[in-house]
UniProtKB/TrEMBL annotation:
It comes from the Bacteria. Residues 28-75 form the Alcohol dehydrogenase-like N-terminal domain. The keyword Glycoprotein does not apply. This is Alcohol dehydrogenase. GO terms for molecular function: alcohol dehydrogenase (NAD+) activity; metal ion binding. It comes from Rubellimicrobium mesophilum DSM 19309. Its EC number is 1.1.1.1. Signal peptide: none annotated. The lineage of its organism: Bacteria, Pseudomonadati, Pseudomonadota, Alphaproteobacteria, Rhodobacterales. The keyword Zinc applies. Keywords: Metal-binding, Oxidoreductase, Zinc. InterPro entries: ADH-like_N, CAD-like, GroES-like_sf. Pfam families: ADH_N.
């Protein structure tokens, strides 16, 4: 397990605060990235506020990231494309 840091809300009425958590080691076909930039879109705000009624807390919004590959699991090597991560055989 690897320690990680993100920003999360603990309730629908709370602000985002630093949140430590643990990640599993990258498995085959997975990569670990160092997040350099993260966008929070309007749907993330709806999710944090539980406006759809299905939020699990702590809620860590942000699914649009720019990062640097720091490790990869065994198996296929990751290659970078202009819009997303692509996998090479």
């Amino acid at each position: 397990m690897a320690k990680a840091l993100g920003y999360a809300a603990n309730h629908s009425f709370s602000r985002l605060k630093p949140h430590e958590f643990e990640r599993e080691e990258p498995q085959a076909g997975e990569i670990e990235i160092e997040v350099l930039f993260c966008g929070v879109c309007h749907s993330d705000i709806h999710q944090v506020k539980n406006e759809w009624g299905n939020t699990v807390y702590p809620c860590m919004p942000g699914h649009e990231v720019v990062g640097r590959v720091t490790r990869r699991g065994r198996g296929r090597a990751a290659t970078r494309s202009a819009t997303s991560w692509a996998w090479a055989a």
